[in-house]
Phosphatase 1 regulatory subunit pprA (Olea europaea subsp. europaea), 340 residues
Amino acid sequence: MDTSTGPADQYPPDIDPKAENEEESSSSPTVLDLTSFQLHDLETVEIPLSLTELDLTANRLSTLDPRISQLPNLKKLSLRQNLFNDDGIQPLSTWDIISALEELVLRDNQLKKIPDVSISKQLLVFDVSFNEISSLNGLSKVSSTLKELYVSKNEVIKMEEIEHFPSLQILELGSNRIRVMENLQNSTSLQELWLGRNRIRAINLCGLKCIKKLSLQSNRLTSMTGLEECIALEELYLSHNGIAKMEGLSTLVNLRLLDVSANKLTEINDIEKLEQLEDLWLNDNQITSLEGIEEAVACSREKLTTIYLERNPCAKSPNYIATLKQILPNVEQIDSELFA
C-alpha cells in the first residue's frame, strides 16, 4: 500500500503538458498525464474532448477547470496530492456529462468531509485517503457499484454508511480512530479489509467468510478470536497488539501468511493444520524456547519459506539457525538471514 504523505519534489516541467499523452494521436488522444508538473491551474493545457483518463497527481491545483466537466468519455480522474478543499471539489456534484466516471482519486488533499459524488452512477474506485475527514457521512450517496473504497489516514471514528456496497472488494480504513468493527454484514464480496492503526479492541467480521486479506496491525487487540469462520483468509496481519495466545486459527486452512509479531506470545499454538502456510512472523514476542515448534509446523514444514523469531528469548538458543533449518527443509529466510 502506498503511504506517501508529502508533496512531490518540486521541479520545473521539462515536457510541454500539451504533449503529455500516453496515446499519441493527433485526432483523438484518450490519456492525459500531467503528474508532477506543479501546475496552479490548467490555463496553458489543452484538454481534448476525447479523454478517457486525466491524471493531475502532484500539482498545486485548488479549483477544478470547468473544461473537465465537458469530457463525455472520462472514466478515470486523479486529483491526488493537490490543494483541494471541500469547496474546490464541490462542482463535481453537478457535472452530469462526466457521470460515467469509474475511478475518482482525491487522495492527499485538504478535504474535511466525504464529497458528494452521487452523480457518478458507475463508480468503481473511490479514494479519499490522506485528508482530514472525520466522518463517513456521505458514503450512502456513493454508487452501489463501488468495488474499492480507500479512506485511510483520516480522522474517522465510526464504520458507517458502508452497508449498501454489495460489490465492494477492498475496504481501506487504516490510520483512523475507529474503535469497533461494525456494519460489514452486507459486504459479502469483500476480499480485503485494512484496519491497521486504529483503536479496535475485538475482532468482529459480522459473519463475513470471503475475506482473503485482513489487517488489524497496531490496534488494541488482546485476543485473536473471531476469525474462525474466515476460511478463505490467505493473509492475516495482527502485529503490534497485546495478544497473549494464538487461537482461532486452526480452521484457516488457506492461510499463507501469518503476522503476529510484536505481541505478548509465549508459545506457538493452533497452526498445526495450516498446510498452506509460507510466511510466519513471530518476532518481538516472549517465546522462550524452540521446543514445540516442530510439532506446530508439522503440516506446513514443506511450504514454509520464511520465519521470523528474532528478539524472542528463543532466538538466543544454541544452534538457533541450524535447528530451524533442520525443521524447515525449504526455508529461504530466517529473520534477516537469506539462504540460497
In short: Residues 86 and 111 are 5 Å apart (CA to CA).
